[in-house]
Design a protein that fits this description.
InterPro entries: Ptyr_pPase, Ptyr_pPase_sf. Helices cover 37% and strands 13% of the residues. With 159 residues, it is α/β, with parallel strands linked by helices.
Length: 159
């Protein structure tokens, strides 16, 4: 199953989700990330946090959804649309869900406060990814309505 984590810039949230999912996922599951308007660079704080958490950053790049290596089965948007941020709408045939998360790249304050925003984003995404991977995926892969219901429920999980 191929999962696409999608946001506008593909520099923070979707990158954190891609690396975390691939670190935790069993064989046969693979995440990628992309943006509708990618920044072209991965935020340095995202890379530093992933390294600190012991996750690989090899191959992580900010890229367009026009350059996906495979067609995703599931698309999860991670923009915080409730905060007035517009999430891109993927136009392929994939099952879609929304896991809104505040953009840590927009955090202000001291270095420590900004680092905490990145850590909070990472912890929330990791919690949701762990919940996703705990689902009975062998069964849900064949029931898209039930899978979407579960993914939408996971997208509501608080930190």
């Amino acid at each position: 199953m191929n999962i696409l984590f999608l946001c506008t810039g593909n520099s923070c949230r979707s990158i954190l989700a891609e690396a975390t999912f691939n670190h935790l996922a069993p064989a046969g599951f693979r995440a990628m990330s992309a943006g509708s308007h990618p920044t072209g660079t991965v935020h340095p704080r995202s890379l530093a946090l992933l390294r600190k958490e012991g996750l690989s950053v090899e191959g992580l790049t900010s890229k367009s959804w026009d350059a996906l290596p495979v067609v995703p089965d599931v698309v999860i948007t991670v923009c915080a649309s409730a905060a007035g941020e517009t999430c891109p709408a993927y136009l392929g045939p994939a099952l879609r869900s929304h896991w809104g998360v505040e953009d840590p790249a927009k955090a202000t304050g001291s270095d420590r406060e900004i680092d905490r925003a990145f850590e909070t984003t990472y912890r929330l995404l990791r919690r949701r990814i762990e919940a996703f991977l705990a689902l009975p995926l062998d069964r849900l892969q064949h029931d898209p309505v039930a899978l979407k219901r579960e993914l939408d429920r996971i997208g509501e999980l608080p930190l």
